[in-house]
Amino acid sequence: MIQTSGVIICLGYIFGLLFTAVPWGGVWILVLGILGAILFRRRTSSQQLAQKAEKAGSKNKAVPNTWQTNPHPRIWLAAGLVGLLATLYFQWRVPQPGAKDISQFVPPGNSSNQEQLVIVRGEVASNPRLTRSQRGQFWLEATQIDEVKNEKGSAGVPKGVTGKLYVTVPILQATGLYPSQQIAVTGILYKPKAASNPGGFDFQKFLKQEGTFAGLIGRQINVLDQERKWGWWQIRERIVRSQVRWLGIPEGPLVSAMVLGSKAVDLPYDIRDLFVQAGLAHALAASGFQTSLILSVILQLTRGAKKGTQFTLGFLALIIFLSLTGFQPAVLRAVIMGFAALVGLLLKRKVKQLGSLLLAATLLLVFNPLWIWDLGFQLSFLATLGLIVTVPALVNRLVWLPPAIASLIAVPLAATLWTLPVQLSVFGVVPSYSLLLNVVSTPLISIISIGGIISALVGLIWTQAGSFLAAVLHYPTDWLIKLVEFFSKLPGNSVAVGSISIWQLLAIYALIILVWLVPWWQRRWWVANVIVIGLVFIPLWHSTNTLFRITVLESGTEPIIVVQERGTVTVINSGDEGTGRFTILPFLQQQGVNQINWAIATDFQGNESNAWLELLQRLPIKNFYEYSPNPENSIATQAIQQELQKHQGFYQPMAVGQAVKTGSIVAQLINAQLPILQLQILDQNWLLVGNVKSKEVQQLVKNGSLPRPQVLWCSPQSLKDLVIALQPQVAIASSVNFDPKVLSELNQSQTKLFFTGRDGAIQWTPDGQFEAFIEAAENKSSIL
């Protein structure tokens, strides 16, 4: 009775936090608690009457008092109240910048282009890491800000500030920094941007989860305090250095990441991405496997000792492991469950894993309710839940296999079943060979993890001995990397199915829970599988075969247009290096796109089409058209042709004025120097114009070189002249800041204006209006 009541109260708290995604979520959870109380009050009353009737009919027959096992209606009401309080507690814990927060001193405009240099003093809060752009990154607890002096004297006086900063500096400037060090960083403050494109990374949300509201692009660091204070980072650094010394890179950091977790180790991004894309991201996250391994070793070594000694040593080992890996949700969950197992050992009682998991979730969410929306937290608990409730059922169905092999298959399959819906909701991609790769790689991962922990312990005592033991892991680690590379290169290694909606996510988990709890569904699990597959692929099939949508992505100074036309995809321009990976690919994955049918390159900004190679390495392109290929870019062109040949793609150089027809689109480069690209899409005329001067606009209009379009894309410098001259229905510019006077003049015209820097991606469908992504996202979030 008490256990059931505790479970309901804990679930009420967790569901209360989940209901923060719904307007008036706390009220709804309270209403559900009241309905539960009414429902179970009637049920218990009817059971009481039935019991009395049975007693009256047979006084000598013992009747089991089953109704008392049902929770009292007051418990359901209490759970509803706890859920209501959870929503209020969540809102109270949402980080907000204080009056003296460093973000309050960011120059107006919310842009990193403001050239007001500042000097920020503070304490380093993390070890420097290498970013994808090859800069050093670390967190800084700010204490003082001072504007840099100019020729006229001081631009301001030092001010005391609070808050944490996301700092990036040249890699050499970050070398040698360590936590608790006092430094002064000269650079430019900026406020982070929210996601500007569908599927894009929300930098603003990421920093807010860390309690940070501003970033600093550093140029120079002055160290104010050379004194080295002791910290867990020193032990962590000693372990990593010991393992990297003879193993080298990337094997050394990989072994360290499998022991301490990738968040505690600066693992190269190519290895990190390789494991994530193959479906082995969990191998790089310190969590339950390492915790179980540590406890097993401690208990085996002390099996002849008293229970109190075993508890103390196990407790200390878990605390040390937690301190080394950092207070991450997945590690905290594993450590709390490890503590529960130790308590059970001390009290000589069997601990229920499901109860300890629920207790761990509740405790962590009381400590930090914002973790309810942390992806690592969600995946960690769902995977553990799958291991607890689904592995036994799978092993029973695989009884015809040897137990070791059955367990080897059941563990990754159960974890995948429970985590895949969330992954589809966030990423929209299925790693096709993930299950098989997990089964094949588990022995190697186990060997590397066990050997890594042993070498780490020895390395703390004797560095060279730890390096020697780590060197023994060279071949297993190398084999693991090659195995992951092999699977990642197989055809169809990842399939984009598109991001599933909230209702699809809830329906899939409802079916999974029914198969877990209801015997009728357990016997018909294959029916649930068919329904789940239908829930994912039928909406995708319908959308793919009926959707016609044009998306102008926010990508800086070059127009990137994606046209989805009933199952075919056309991409126009690719932007500079990095745009393919961080802008175009995430958008296409969210839309469930697995190939590009037509690609048109015009090289608006002379960036040598670097992003096309990024796209080709992940998605096949069937037809590639390049306008006026530059002989100076012959190396890039050859690389594109080689990648196209791998997927039997077609390459065609195009001359100025030559038209390209792709489905319902006719594209034609009118001028390669400015440049000017004309698109005929259904009955609309689109015009993409580069940076042209006012005199050039007048001359082009006079010569008739610029046809009047319904939709215009142009650079902000030429927006006013082009809108006045061409009078389009819609004009799209790439600026976030614009002269208010000019903007006021343009607003008096009939042209509807969009700025991708402010509005994000712009989308249009034939039966709808142009829609800004950021505005649509805000409306959606307000509804949810």
From TrEMBL:
It is found in: Cell membrane. Residues 23-223 form the DUF4131 domain. It is a multi-pass membrane protein. Keywords: Cell membrane, Membrane, Transmembrane, Transmembrane helix. It holds the Pfam family DUF4131. One of its GO terms (cellular component) is plasma membrane. The keyword Transmembrane helix applies. InterPro entries: ComEC_N, Competence_DNA_uptake, DUF4131, RibonucZ/Hydroxyglut_hydro. It comes from the Bacteria. Signal peptide: none annotated. The chain crosses the membrane at residues 6-39, 75-92, 280-301, 330-347, 354-373, 379-398, 405-424, 444-473, 494-518, 524-541. Its main location: membrane. NCBIfam families: ComEC_N-term. PANTHER family: DNA INTERNALIZATION/COMPETENCE PROTEIN COMEC/REC2 (PTHR30619), RECOMBINATION PROTEIN 2 (PTHR30619:SF1). This is ComEC/Rec2-related protein. It comes from Nostoc punctiforme (strain ATCC 29133 / PCC 73102). The lineage of its organism: Bacteria, Bacillati, Cyanobacteriota, Cyanophyceae, Nostocales.
